Amino acid sequence: MPTPFFSARDLSFHLYEVLQADQLTRFAHFADHDRASFDMVLDAAAQIGENLLRPLLTVMDRDEPQLVDGKIRVHPDMRAIIRRFGDDGWINAPFTYDEGGQQLPATVMNAATFIFGAANYSSSVFPFLTTGAANLLRSFGSKELIDRFTPNMYTGRWQGTMALTEPDAGSSLSDITTSAEPIDEATGVYKIRGQKIYISAGDHDACDNVIHLMLAKIKGGPAGAKGISLFVVPQKRPTDTGELVDNDVLTAGVYHKMGYKGAPIAHLMVGSNDGTVGYLLGQPHQGLRYMFQMMNEARVGVGMNAVSIGTAAYYASLAYARERPQGRPIAEKGPGHDWSAKPQTPIVRHADVKRMLLFQKAVLEGSLGLLLQCSQLADTAHAAEGEEAQRAALLLDLLTPVAKSYPSEMGCLTTSAAVQILGGAGYTTDFPVEQFYREARIHPIHEGTTGIHGLDLLGRKVTMQGGKAVQIWVEAVQKTMTEAAEHDALKPLVDEMGKALGMLDTTTRHLLGLLPTDTEAALADATLYLELFGIVTIGWQWLRQATVAQEALPNAVSDEDRNFYQGKLMTARYFVEYELVKVRSLAKRLQSPDRVTVAMQSEWF
Amino acid sequence: MPTPFFSARDLSFHLYEVLQADQLTRFAHFADHDRASFDMVLDAAAQIGENLLRPLLTVMDRDEPQLVDGKIRVHPDMRAIIRRFGDDGWINAPFTYDEGGQQLPATVMNAATFIFGAANYSSSVFPFLTTGAANLLRSFGSKELIDRFTPNMYTGRWQGTMALTEPDAGSSLSDITTSAEPIDEATGVYKIRGQKIYISAGDHDACDNVIHLMLAKIKGGPAGAKGISLFVVPQKRPTDTGELVDNDVLTAGVYHKMGYKGAPIAHLMVGSNDGTVGYLLGQPHQGLRYMFQMMNEARVGVGMNAVSIGTAAYYASLAYARERPQGRPIAEKGPGHDWSAKPQTPIVRHADVKRMLLFQKAVLEGSLGLLLQCSQLADTAHAAEGEEAQRAALLLDLLTPVAKSYPSEMGCLTTSAAVQILGGAGYTTDFPVEQFYREARIHPIHEGTTGIHGLDLLGRKVTMQGGKAVQIWVEAVQKTMTEAAEHDALKPLVDEMGKALGMLDTTTRHLLGLLPTDTEAALADATLYLELFGIVTIGWQWLRQATVAQEALPNAVSDEDRNFYQGKLMTARYFVEYELVKVRSLAKRLQSPDRVTVAMQSEWF
User: Fold this and answer.
1) Is B171 at the interface with chain A, CB within 8 A?
2) What is the pLDDT of residues B264-313, one digit of tens each?
3) How confident is the prediction for chain B on average, in pLDDT?
């Protein structure tokens, strides 16, 4: 039996026992679904993951994409795989029936992408980049643009991308210089010229065309972020007769990178020969707003990718720990025991190895819970009405930087723990954990670095609408604590959670107090504030999971279920003991008056 | 000008301003040296690093060693480089004049290896593996063995290795099964048979022969660790006439690994055709003791390698941060400022980037201080007499697991910070930081995993001689605190250090109290105890450095010196604020009665 790369049991626990995701079907938009149809979707994802994606995990890492004659060559199986995603309806699954979609809840869709990512992250990015680009198109484009571009995107024939970054504008998007000049202002046709870098799936030979959703500045428009517009810029321009003609979007290079090597990341030259036509999406100068409306989704997606890779590494290290004999249990050592004559024990029996496994499990299953809850909030914001929808949207807005960054940062450490469990073997390419370690490192960088998300959380999200989002969140955490406190066994966890929440609250007040008068000092440690907020958020997730497990354990009918719930309860304890405890040090630092990072000068390094 | 990979100014600060390493020449063994001769050695190291090693950094990573016709092929320049190390006297530099060495203090030798490792870690391992193996030979071997093997090792013609690990015996060395049967017991000639894995430089085509210092068990000897002997097992056996004949040591494979790819790591089959002769080193069954007498040295070496790689990454990220414009200073943003019209600022001005730079500087320069001090302790233990030597040896014994593990574990995080500073660029192979990130990951694994060193520290070193080593260490820390407290500016740091030392002390007493009755629980978090001990130890190092800087600053005559000392003082503050503060959370966890990792069961994962 091959090593599993995720747990269907755990996914089902999150979806149905914790989140009660089947309740989403009470909304008219999702009314045709039920738990059985959700499970069919997830089973199908598991099949694709196991049979199509996983077998390419290693080879896509070793034979990375190459630029050959101006075109990026990717693994030859990718064409069939992307078409399969198209034919099976994955690419437009979340969209409406009218659009050929299935009105699939984001909660289920993201659970499926979790499976794909755990099977083979590189291969999973192609189809869902197209979903993201198509979502922008359908949300803000004219009927004509939608009809022209989306059908071939939904089938997987055309790749979609988000083309934002430029050589001098990464974190600072307002500084892009790609320009747009009207050819026909009335119909929104522009001549585009510029350079885009780090464009995921920006060019490859597993599709017939690439449709870039590209940020550019219309000449003569406002400076900075207010002058950014969004354009549809195809690699090849479809004519009225359906032909594809060259649109002067050249691939200047492919980036070779540390990990997720199977995904082609392109450097594009746009309009170098004056021949690039782009189609304005929506209104001029609204590009950044459009893009940011889709950002929550993409950022939750990145968090999910991070959990996927971490989960694959966790199961690889767990399988190894159960099989690898090394040393003896400490309890059997010491004077009086002739331990050297005894057979070696599987390393899963050593407390230090269990600690490294519990660390992974605690971070990953806590994060998975958060990400699926964020997906459910997105579904509720979309399908519910009135205050319910507004509260869900606000809470999602608040949690998005956490849901993106906590799993991304911690995924570097969980994959590192997986490597450590394998020891020397983990450092070799004979096992996949070193690949997961390399792949995990991208997530704190793309879709906004951790530093950017720290500023977003502390500088924007915590204060929006007079702090209403935080208030909604605190109410939700307190509700979880009240429910957990009904179980005596969970009271110690609730106590620690209460203290942690208090420390976060004191820290938040301290920093918000500084914000008006000393903005730089208030925001200097925003990354640490994000870390603190993330730990408390995952603590909350574990309290939810522990409460469900505590209630289910006495009624569990199989050993498998009893073991599962015991594992949840132990992992919740682990999180409180080893991770939640970190809020003490973080809160102390964040409330310290010493502004050493602000005061530091470049020439003193 | 190429990006620097280390700071000669900082190295000189550690050696002469903090450690006063030139005082080593008061010992007879080092009496022929002086500061000028030390500096010549370090200048020579910098030249070799810059001119020979650094140019191969990237190519040795890309074109990794391959097994071709039973022989591992390495970079073709390595042969000349190893010979250069031999011809210039590096390989036997620490040994006596009688042996052709220079009686160079370990303090200076390790400062030189720091430079080599920062230039190109893979290339630097070849010569000093030979030094380590030769040191075992000269320390425990007969004159005949020494004469037969060491001369060609010193010239770099023959490679030396440590051959310990086997497929079923990595951390658990007592379980090795490589066997030795006497051919001629009187002269210590044995027939050897077994398998060795992960043997660094275990075979390659840049030398004429490989001399393995190999652990094996003499048949009929005691079980477990008490039956391990040490043998000299050449790849080719030198005959009395000087010919080299095959010794049946076959290279079964080369490991492909995540990083430091330029160094060949071999899988060896020994005596498969019954033709391997090995020469017993010293007495039978004393192999592990001999090996462990050399371990301190190797482990300090690994810590130094970790600092080397981290330092190269730090300077690469610092250079990038000073050049890369992105965004505006926060102080210039906000309403009322038209900041978008202003040019972008170098990212080194952002507090979050300065935090990531200070993090690297704090960890790396704190660790470098510790490692050079450990080297000085080794020199004192070797060259001093009586109690001075004994105290130095004891303190070195205590600090060795910390000096190996703290830089190794933290080097993974500092190189990660370097990647983060470069953002997307850092994830590509266009910059060297991703390579440093991959290379750094080996150090928590080889020469004893971090888990093993945690057990060594808490289970052995803290309690040895009734806790005398800890007592010596605490006296040293308190002396540093007293000296620092004479400067008002340093008093806040001294206060925090005092609290941290108190928390460590309480934690140590708590765990030692558990040790006799519940050994497993007492040692379960030994890795965290090692982390706690490491943080306090590096805090001590920063207090030493800050005291020197505080005294030097008023007398500094150049801007360069003023900037340097300011940087030291700021970094000491950073360490206390952001790193030393972590002892609070660690001490709380380590004193908690919840034994969740001990209680966890394999089937609950």
Assistant:
1) yes
2) 999 999 999 999 999 999 999 999 999 987 888 889 999 999 999 999 99
3) 96
Show me where the domains of chain B are located.
8-152, 161-285, 450-594
B420 closest CB neighbour out of A346, A444, A603: A444
Kindly tell me if the per-residue pLDDT of A554 is higher than 80.
yes
Nearest Cα neighbor of A388 from A20, A4, A71, A27 is A27
CA distance A178 to chain B (A): 16
Q: What does each C-alpha distance from B589 to A492, A543, B239, B532, B583 come to in angstroms?
A: 14, 19, 60, 11, 10
Q: CA of A604 to nearest chain B CA: how many angstroms apart?
A: 4
**B454 vs B451: CA distance, rounded Å:** 5
Closest CA to A161 of A117, A211, A96: A211
Nearest CA in chain A to B562: A604
Nearest residue in B to A10, CA atom: B605
Asked if the C-beta of A341 comes within 8 angstroms of chain B's C-beta atoms, the answer is yes
Distance from CA of A514 to the nearest CA of B (A): 13
Q: Where are the alpha helices (DSSP H) in B198-342?
A: 287-323
- Select the more confidently predicted residue: A395 or A242: A395
Partners of residue B253 on adjacent β-strands: B267
Does A447 qualify as catalytic in the annotation? yes
| pLDDT of A333 over the 70 cut | no
Sorted by sequence, the CB contacts under 8 Å of residue B447 that are 6+ apart come out as: B295, B298, B299, B301, B302, B404
Q: Is the pLDDT of residue B340 over 80?
A: no
CB contact under 8 A, B597 and A330: no
| Closest CA of chain A from B417, distance in Å | 11
Provide DSSP, B454-485: HHHIIIIITTGGGGHHHHHHHHHHHHHHHHHT
ipTM here? 0.98
Greater pLDDT, A428 or B337? A428
d(CA B120, CA B435): 11
The pLDDT, as a whole number, for residue B336 is: 55
* pLDDT score recorded for residue B337: 57
- pLDDT tens sequence across A437-475: 999 999 999 999 999 999 999 999 999 999 999 999 999
Contact B332/A at CB under 8 A: no
Task: Examine the pLDDT at B333 and tell me if it is beyond 80.
Answer: no
Residue A146 and residue A101 in contact, taking contact as beta carbons nearer than 8 Å: no
Three-class SS of residue A268? strand
> pLDDT digits over B78-110, tens only?
999 999 999 999 999 999 999 999 999 999 999
3-class SS string, B70-117: CEEECCCCHHHHHHHHHHCCCCCCCCCHHHCCCCCCHHHHHHHHHHHH
Q: Which residue of A has its CA nearest to B445?
A: A423
Interchain CB distance below 8 Å, A424 and B602:
no
Phi, psi of B41 (to 5 degrees): -60, -45
Give yes or no for a contact between B590 and B511, defined as CB atoms under 8 angstroms apart. Answer: yes
Look at B416 and A441 and tell me if their CB atoms are within 8 Å: yes
Residue B329 has what pLDDT? 86
> For the domain with range A160-285, which CATH number is right: 1.10.10.10, 3.40.30.10, 2.40.110.20, 2.60.40.10?
2.40.110.20
Q: Does the domain formed by B161-285 have CATH 3.40.50.300? A: no
Position B338 confidence tier, pLDDT thresholds 50, 70, 90: low
Q: Do B344 and A175 touch (CB under 8 A)?
A: yes
Strands A71-73 and A66-68: antiparallel
* Residue A528 exposure: Cα atoms within 13 Å on the Cβ side: 30
Report which residue type is found at B597.
Answer: T
Q: Determine contact: B351 vs chain A, CB below 8 A.
A: yes
CATH number of B8-152: 1.10.540.10
Residue A81 has pLDDT above 80, yes or no: yes
DSSP A56: G
